[in-house]
Structure formats: C-alpha cells, structure tokens
Write a structure and sequence with these properties.
heterodimer; A: mainly alpha; globular; B: mainly alpha; 6 helices
C-alpha cells in the first residue's frame, strides 16, 4: 500500500476523526446538519436584495452557518499557528476561479457538497447523498485524470 | 430569528476546521493527488469522519425526540432527483479541475493560503448564479421580517 499512501496515513485518519467529531457534535446537540455549501447561498443576502436570497431559511442559515464557518477558519488557523507552517497553493488562478464557479453552481444545484452529502447525508444513509457522492467522486476523478493528462499541473 | 446552540456550532466548526488542516484537506495539491489517484489519503479522511458521524446521525434521533439545543432533528431528503445528479456532476468537474470544495477552501483561509480567495470568489459567483438561474422551484417566498 506504500504506493497509494506515499505521505503516510495517520494524519489523514486523525484529521478525519476530528472532522466527524465536529460535524457530529453539531448534530448531536443542535440537530443541525453541518454542510458548508448552503453558506455560499446565505452569503448572497449580504449584497443581493433578490427574494430568493432572503427567505427565512436562508437568513437563518446565514446566522448559524456563518458561525460554523468562523469556527472552520479559526480551527484551521489554530493548527497553522501551533504547527508553525502556513500553506500557499500553487494551483493556477484560472483553475481556482473556474473550479470555484463550477463548485458554487454545482453544489447549490445538488443541495450539498463533500460535507453536506459526503459526510452528513451519507451518515444518515440518505439515498440522494449516496447518489451525489458517487457522481461527484467519479466525475472529479475522471476530470482530474484528463487535466493531468493534458499536462496541467499540479 | 433566534438560533440556539451557536457556541456549540462554533465549537463544532473549530473541530471541523482543525480536522481539515490536520488531514491536509486544506491543501489543494493533496486533494488533487487523491483525485489523480496518486494518494488515497482523502478516502481515509472521509472514512474516519464517517466512522464518527454514522453512529451519531443514526442513534441520536432514535434516542431523543428532539435535540437538546435545537427545535428538531434536521432530516435529509430521501428522494434522488435530477438536481442531485446533475449538480454533483458540475461540482465534480470543478473539484477535479481545482481541488476546491466549499469546506476545505473556506478553512484554507486559516492557513494563509491567500490565492484561495480566487476560489472563494468563484464559488460565491457560482452560488449566485444558481440562485438566479436555477433556483429551487419549491423555495417558499417568505418575508424576511420573520419574528
């Protein structure tokens, strides 16, 4: 298995346990599903007056998912400060932006992402999340192979 | 609208963000290494997260009629629709192209990864486009002035 885990396994596993603990804590005590993509919609209410971004549900999500997101950034920041190493990606700007557009559009059409469907929905054994996960995993892997094959790196 | 349990939600977010950083999911290169099938770490991370999340999501609603700090146990939809499949395909293309997904990208801001702002801008623009061009047809139009 050395080939498939060239950078070791434990940090992946331990980090995953913490991710599950964070998401699980939120559900256990508040009953809320801690998926991230809906915050992308809720944030629109700050600059758009369109009714679709001002439903009661969206505004409520702005409050609590906004709180979740603050925690997300602080948690990563805490690790950065404790470990002493920052990270800067070398993925090109155009890929980040174009990828972001597709991710923002796609996750909101699908009503979830790697956290909302991949962890929360699958933990509930919800069929839409199982289907969504299978699709986005397969498509992402094929896309990444193609991008890599045509010489775009990393 | 009063949301209970905000400190818990914040604490959960901190654990979630720390986990993303420890597992290096905040590094787009690591995610791309998985999607290019060179390093299966991401699968281990998801598996470990599910190991913890599954018992909680399965047992909690069966053991208590309501959560301690919330109105109800939120439920996932149970019917697979075209939106789930087509939206996920679009998401997959974006993820495979860039190694970007909403949670890890936002958390990545905490690592000093300033180029990721381009991805954040893209995601916000994409989400705007969904709301305007492909809104949910059943989204209720409720006044923002709810008590």
């Amino acid at each position: 298995m050395d080939d498939l885990l060239p950078n070791g396994a434990w940090h992946y596993f331990n980090g995953g346990l913490l991710i599950g603990a964070g998401i699980g804590l939120v559900y256990l005590l508040t009953g809320r599903i801690a998926g991230v993509s809906s915050f992308l919609t809720a944030a629109q209410s700050w600059w758009s007056g369109r009714p679709v971004f001002h439903t009661a549900r969206v505004l409520e999500e702005r409050t609590w998912k906004g709180t979740l997101i603050c925690g997300l950034i602080l948690g990563a920041l805490a690790h950065t400060l404790i470990s002493g190493s920052t990270f800067v990606t070398s993925v090109q700007w155009w890929r980040l932006f174009a990828g972001g557009l597709l991710v923002g559009l796609g996750t909101r059409v699908a009503r979830g992402c790697t956290s909302g469907h991949g962890i929360c929905g699958n933990a509930s054994f919800a069929a839409p999340s199982l289907a969504a996960t299978a699709v986005f995993m397969a498509v992402a892997i094929v896309t990444a192979q193609i991008v890599s094959a045509i010489g775009v790196a990393p | 609208m009063k949301v209970r349990g905000l400190p818990v939600i914040f604490a959960g977010g901190v654990l979630f963000g720390a986990g993303l950083a420890i597992s290096k999911m905040v590094e787009q290169e690591v995610v791309l290494a998985f999607l290019q099938l060179r390093d299966l770490g991401l699968a281990m991370t998801m598996g470990a997260a599910l190991l913890v999340a599954i018992p909680i999501y399965q047992l909690a609603p069966r053991l208590r009629p309501a959560p301690p700090l919330g109105p109800v146990w939120d439920r996932h939809p149970r019917r697979v629709t075209r939106r789930h499949v087509l939206g996920s395909a679009l998401f997959g293309v974006g993820w495979g192209l860039s190694g970007i997904c909403p949670g890890s990208t936002i958390a990545s801001l905490g690592t000093g990864n300033w180029p990721i702002l381009a991805a954040v801008a893209g995601m916000l623009a994409g989400a705007w486009a969904q709301g305007v061009l492909l809104p949910e047809s059943t989204e209720p139009r409720v006044s923002a002035a709810a008590p």
